[in-house]
Amino acid sequence: MVDLLGKMKQMDRMWDLVHELRSEGLVTLETIAKIMRRLAGAGRWKDAVKLFEDLETMGFDQDTRSMNIFLDTLCKEKRVDVAREAFLVLKSHIPPDAFTFNIFVHGWCSACRIDEAMWTIEEMKKWGLRPSVITYSTILQAYCNQHKFQEVYDLLDRMVAEGCLPNVVTYTTIMNSFANTGKLEEALGIVKRMKSSGCKLDILFYNSLINILGKAGRLHEAAHIFDIDMQRNGIRRNLSTYNTMISIFCHQCQEQNALNVLKEMENLSCEPDLQTYRPLLKLCFKLRQRDDHIHSLLSDMINKHHLSLDLDTYTLLIHGLCSVGNIEWACLLFDEMIGREIQPRNRTCKLLMDEAGQKNMEAAVERIKTVMKRIDHTP
Membrane-crossing residues (predicted)? Predict the structure, then answer.
């Protein structure tokens, strides 16, 4: 309740509630953290500073834990400079720990000031604290975001030299960053580096690698990892693995292979979700398949797996049906989503209204116009 009132910028009511909680001895340090975060989020960071200064009057110590909460609040609200000024004062009587410096590393990186983050690591070492893989991975992510890949390699070498070995999350982050910028070979080079380092692979790494290879059209390699490598390394596929593989096959118009994956996951009691079926439905429209095939997929979704269609799925179906000229069915789905109080996107309304107008479906056009007016007046 404190958090929600602060989020709604109802600060007076938030403070009334806090005072009530204090009278009953229910205020915790977590409560203080929520108050600080909402004050800073409302631009009242000076009030957040004052709250920390008055912490002892509320029965809490100004210690390392409370200082970290205070600094983390300021950094997450993009007030890292203010947090730094406060720390320069506080460090004389409150000893920092590794988490203190990790907060600043994350804050500087979020502000795209990686040099300050690197300097923070040196300061950390002067306090006798050792940077962790999380510390370095935060900076690596920032370098990746700025496409500074030579710095990525240099920092990886530095980590190894210092005995702080990158973990699977570090490598997966870098691999995805290379792939997202079109550097496929560099991404696969990271995979080789990762395996040669003896780093233990996990499901998130494999899911990412399958997706990268699939998007690059290297379907055979993706399928080999899916069918053989994961099992060989004792990694059990999850829903995301199956969804990724189905999406890849659908993107390459290999419907039967995608359906085979769906059948396999069902046999292994891995329940599909809407994300499983969307690529299959999209492929149906792309291949302009018969209505009964789409009906069959929808029947499995709703009756077999008890999935309830959401906005994205209704949108896909309505747009797909318009693309193949089945406006009547599209209008039925449109009416169905309205009946379920799912508000359609404006572009969906415009598309369906245009298509219905061309087929002289005047009643449908009027219904869509009514919905659009209601959407326009929704605050």
Answer: none
Where in the sequence is the domain holding 138, given as residue range(s)?
112-198
Query: Model confidence over 182-213: pLDDT tens digits?
Result: 999 999 999 999 989 989 899 999 999 999 99
Q: Residue 213 — left, alpha, or beta (φ > 0 → left; ψ -120 to 50 → alpha)?
A: alpha
What is the per-residue DSSP string for 55-87?
GGGGT---SHHHHHHHHHHHHHTT-HHHHHHHH
Of 149, 164, 198, which residue constitutes the final position of a domain? 198
Together in a domain, 291 and 369: no
**What gap in Å lies between CA 269 and CA 279, rounded to an integer?**
20
**pLDDT digit string (tens) for 137-165?**
999 999 999 999 999 999 999 999 999 99
Residue 106 lies inside a defined structural domain of this protein:
no
Structural domain includes residue 263: yes
- End residue of a domain, out of 252, 283, 308: 308
C-beta separation of 321 from 333 below 8 A: yes
Two structure tokens written together for 238: 């999850």
Is the domain of 288 the same as that of 224?
yes
> How buried is 110 (Cβ within 10 angstroms: 0-12 exposed, 13-18 middle, 19+ buried)?
middle
